[in-house]
Design a protein that fits this description.
By secondary structure, this protein is mainly alpha-helical. It has nine helices and no strands.
Length: about 160
């Protein structure tokens, strides 16, 4: 569950320390409030939603600018290793281009739902609980996303 929450939070921020702190805060809050919490059927979805809400509230309060350092102004380009070059050549450039353009056509909500369904392996019921939208809406968004991906993969580059 911990790694799952960490992966979920990584979609919103790269600050791993902040994510770990938020996960601990969620679990601590749930423990402290355990007597007053309602009985839930889908614990994973409940905890995920609690974590997501806390994370989004924290992100709303943080400044939206990124400080620029001297190193950011002087990037150092490193040459790829031979193995990296070899692996890059082994990939089918056409397929990557098609997939990249198809993914670029998806909305952020479609990407989020595809990730939850296929990478995090959440059920539709869990997704409904976490996101607070109807299951029918989830079905429709995922269907539209898959259709967009199918069409994008069929196109000529």
């Amino acid at each position: 569950m911990y790694q799952y929450l960490l992966n979920t939070g990584s979609r919103y921020t790269d600050d791993q320390h902040e994510l770990k702190d938020l996960i601990q805060q969620v679990f601590l809050h749930l423990w402290e409030q355990r007597e007053r919490l309602p009985e839930v059927q889908h614990v994973k979805a409940y905890v995920t939603r609690a974590f997501r809400n806390r994370l989004l509230n924290t992100l709303k309060k943080t400044p939206r600018f990124i400080p620029v350092t001297e190193d950011d102004l002087n990037p150092r380009f490193t040459e790829s290793s031979y193995l990296e070059k070899l692996l890059a050549y082994q990939h089918d450039e056409t397929q990557r281009t098609r997939l990249g353009s198809a993914l670029a056509q998806l909305t952020p909500r479609q990407l989020e739902l595809l990730e939850m369904r296929f990478f995090m392996q959440m059920s539709y019921e869990e997704m409904e609980t976490v996101l607070g939208i109807s299951r029918k809406t989830i079905y429709n968004i995922i269907f539209a996303a898959l259709e967009t991906l199918r069409e994008g993969m069929r196109r000529e580059v």
